[in-house]
Design brief:
This protein has about 325 residues and is an alpha+beta fold. It has three domains: about 5-105, Rossmann fold, CATH 3.40.50; about 115-130 and about 200-325, D-amino Acid Aminotransferase, Chain A, domain 1, CATH 3.30.470.20; about 135-195, 2-Layer Sandwich (Dna Ligase, domain 1), CATH 3.30.1490.20. About 30% of the residues lie in helices and about 30% in strands. The protein is built from ten helices and 18 strands. The strands form four sheets. Strands 8, 13, 14, 15, 16, 17 and 18 form a seven-stranded mixed beta sheet that branches. A five-stranded mixed beta sheet has the order 4-3-2-1-7. It starts with a strand and ends with a helix. The model has no long low-confidence stretch (mean pLDDT about 95).
Length: about 325
């Protein structure tokens, strides 16, 4: 039986354009002999089904159904391609779990936890996962630049705590630039994290559940043409992404083990992509993404290709995994 699959895309954050690209790649790659795919745009002001003529049809939020040709359509599963809120922070996961609709991302609690960089790092630290020194600020807190610098040093990174794709991030070299960086981060979120600069090789590691087993994908080495791996480096071609990474095997093994441990400790499922910088030959975790980019330029699809997994197989597996978990 052909399964009805809702591909949710868009979202409420600065990442919505990337999400639309990811969702459309999924839509193009799903096998029509196995799946009938529906593009569902999720925005603050509307939830709509977008048909092949780009006409919009409302989504019934009571049961997450649509009407097509006067016939009610309900979905066997949801493919989550929303980066940022509400697809990566637990909101959509909780909604689908209440409706008992299987979805391709991790569970609600794990999504909320990993989306909050500060909380995620705090949970992982007791398990021996190494990370940068950090300092936290909430909107309205008194900013003590001297204390911040004494804690994390210079240069340092000022980041929005709950944002992706390097939105709201600034590398700070001088004390007088700290306040402006904090202001930039607060435009994205009311919580920020300030971290020490780690000078080393940066890598990205995809970990997925594939055919019932946890699979660590080939590692990607990030070499940014810019000062760090910012939005332009990620999406406008201003970086080199080398897969598999050109690092010694003992370092590759170390970061593979760390990435798998993070996936297991957090009890993730579906897709994940975690970022690390090596310091003294030890991988230091930067963040964990549970709805990573799926565009043709994105890192996880590059890694899947290096593992001889096609996009069609990657996406089909994600759907089959969530359906299999529901049937347990």
């Amino acid at each position: 039986m052909i399964k009805n699959i809702a591909i949710i895309m868009g979202g409420y954050s600065s990442e919505y354009e990337i999400s639309l690209k990811s969702g459309n790649v999924v839509y193009e790659m799903l096998n029509p002999n196995k799946f009938k795919a529906f593009r569902i745009h999720i925005f603050k002001n509307k939830w709509v089904y977008v048909d092949n003529q780009n006409a919009e049809h409302p989504v019934n939020r009571d049961d997450f159904s649509i009407v097509e040709n006067h016939k009610k359509i309900q979905f066997h599963a949801v493919f989550n391609a929303i980066h940022g809120a509400p697809g990566e922070n637990g909101f959509m996961q909780a909604y689908f779990e209440l409706l008992n609709i299987p979805h391709t991302s991790c569970n609600m609690y794990q999504a909320a936890l990993t989306f909050n960089k500060r909380d995620c790092l705090s949970v992982l630290k007791p398990f021996g996962i190494k990370m940068a020194e950090s300092y936290y600020l909430n909107l309205g807190d008194v900013v003590d630049v001297k204390t911040i610098i004494n804690t994390v040093g210079l240069p340092c990174f000022v980041k929005a705590n709950k944002a992706g794709s390097s939105f709201g991030i600034t590398k700070v070299y001088k004390p007088e630039d700290m306040q402006n960086a904090i202001d930039v981060a607060f435009k994205e979120d009311d919580e920020i994290i300030i971290e020490s600069f780690l000078d080393g090789v940066e890598v990205s590691v995809g970990v997925i559940t594939y055919k019932g087993e946890i699979l660590v994908l080939p590692i990607t080495q990030i070499i940014s043409d810019n000062d760090f791996f910012d939005y332009k480096a990620k999406y406008l071609g201003q970086s080199k992404e080398i897969t598999p990474a050109q690092i010694p095997e003992h370092l590759a093994e170390r970061v593979r083990n760390t990435a798998k441990k993070v996936y297991e400790v957090l009890q993730l499922k579906g897709f994940s992509r975690s970022e690390y910088i090596f310091k003294n030959d030890e991988p230091h975790l930067l963040e964990v993404n549970t709805v990573p980019g799926l565009t043709k330029e994105s890192i996880l699809p590059q890694q899947a290709a290096a593992a001889d997994i096609s996009l069609e197989a990657l996406f089909e597996n994600a759907i089959e995994e969530c359906l299999r978990q529901k049937s347990r």
